[in-house]
């Protein structure tokens, strides 16, 4: 075994030489002048979500005992940890962003610190809107025993909470980190919500697996969607090189008090009016009027071809 290891070492050195060759890399991790820039970390980003969740809902996302006598002290420590992680990861995201190539690390960290402070200031407002999501989920699900169960167990709420955290950071012009947050939630829950989507209060995802909500989707208040629902793009406008043009609205607008049942797909910049109901297993590419109900034709309306 020792001889084989020694024999293989020149081969390993040669492979590492190729892997480290800048000339052979098509995709190089962005760097700026000098070294020591912070690096993005999935584990740190996951910790950011965990800490923000703990601060908004004390006792639900921690493994240790948190009695009332020490709760304030523990939350203060966690808030400081959250701030430090935010500064580091927001700085890392900004270092990845080409627009910051000419900025010093000091300038980037100062800007990241302002973003981190603004995010922490927004936590009470974030909790308020998440409270509406929790209440709507509990009231709309006969199987829910309590709002506590919704917070502790429901993947739809977990994905929504991650989305709302990510969306808040995106509005602060934080690059990359918001998408990392929602993709971690996607891996955990099977629910894919782009941080750029706009979602109103009392939002409910029931069951949730397979839900996809695109970047330019707009969802009103008191909307409920079931598993397998897609709010996607019908087609892409392309440039002269046949590449998709980015940043244009291409996903649905969902009004207030809308219900979309399982496995329905709504594509393109269509509008689903207030109080509409979209039945299950439908393919929708047109506007739906307020109050309209789309359902599949009954099976007995079809003639068998056999």
Notes on the structure:
- The protein has 306 residues and is of the alpha/beta class.
- It folds into two domains: 37-191, Orthogonal Bundle (serine acetyltransferase, domain 1); 197-306, UDP N-Acetylglucosamine Acyltransferase, domain 1.
- The chain is 44% helix and 10% strand.
- The chain has eight helices and 14 strands.
- The chain has helices at 2-20, 42-56, 68-96, 105-121, 123-140, 147-153, 155-171, 177-189, and strands at residues 192-193, 198-199, 204-206, 212-213, 218-219, 224-226, 230-232, 253-254, 259-260, 265-267, 271-272, 277-278, 283-284, 293-294.
- α2 crosses α8 and α3 packs across α4.
- It is globular, with a radius of gyration of 24 Å.
How would you concisely characterize the structure shown here?
This protein has helices spanning 2-20, 42-56, 68-96, 105-121, 123-140, 147-153, 155-171, 177-189; strands spanning 192-193, 198-199, 204-206, 212-213, 218-219, 224-226, 230-232, 253-254, 259-260, 265-267, 271-272, 277-278, 283-284, 293-294. By secondary structure, it is of the alpha/beta class.
Key structural traits:
306 residues, 8 helices, serine acetyltransferase, domain 1, alpha/beta, five-stranded parallel beta sheet, UDP N-Acetylglucosamine Acyltransferase, domain 1
Instruction: Please report the total strand number as a whole number.
Output: 14
Estimate the mean pLDDT confidence: 90
CATH topology descriptor of the largest domain: serine acetyltransferase, domain 1
Fraction of residues in helices? Answer: 40-55%
Given this structure, which CATH class of the largest domain is correct?
Mainly Alpha
Number of helices, counting only DSSP H or I runs of 4 residues or more: 8
CATH superfamily of the largest domain: serine acetyltransferase, domain 1
Strand content: 5-15%
Shape: globular
Kindly report how far apart the N and C termini lie.
67 Å
What Rg, in angstroms, do the CA atoms define?
Answer: 24 Å
